[in-house]
Design a protein that fits this description.
Strand content: 5-15%
Number of domains: 2
Radius of gyration: 26 Å
Number of strands: 5
Shape: elongated
Strand order of the largest sheet: 2-1-5-4-3
Largest sheet: 5 strands, antiparallel
CATH superfamily of the largest domain: GAF domain
Helix content: 55-70%
Length: 237
Amino acid sequence: MTQPSVNPVDAFAELGRIRLDETSLDEMLDRIMDLAVRSIPGTSRVSVTMLRGQAGRALAFTDEVARQLDEWQYDRGYGPCLDASTSGSPISVPDMADEERWPDWAAQAKGAGVGSSLSIGLPIQAAVVGALNVYSDAAHAFDRDAVTAAEGFAAYAAVALANAHLYESAATLSEQMQTALRSRAVIEQAKGIIMADRRCPPDEAFALLSKLSQETNRKVRDVAQALVANAVGSAAR
């Protein structure tokens, strides 16, 4: 069994010195995984799972074996890292050769040279959870001390994932706001074209857009965009 080159206490102290406001998410996760591999006894590779609803993805991984074993579970909707994510509890697979809960996944893992695994749940928010996944080339690699060390790393990974979720949520909200503003702008342009053509007030122009939207089974934004494009094309000819 691989012996750790770094004491877990020293690893946690090193992680504790990292300033989250000065470190990117990728850098933080890379540091967590590097120290986990070097300080958790028996560890050969590590990955971090993020699960949003039913959609999982490997947010970080040390190698392709870890990524492929995680994504195999995402594609099929079951496996230890998904169970750990949803339950928030540690899920241990002591020996891939004897695993009965997920025998087909264990066969994939054994074929890739993995002997055992440990997944620690990372509760982030109600709709977003995750797991720290630790893999070993040897069977029965993770004893109580290894589980305790992995749980310590999981606490840091949970903070990193929480930050990732907040960032993604802010980015999504910003994109939605920009889309809404663009939609409103093109609708206002279309209303102006109708008002000039029919000499009608704004509410009547919008009512005409809405009626055309219903008749053609298209969104008001798409109807407005087509109207503006047609007007621009006519003006250019």
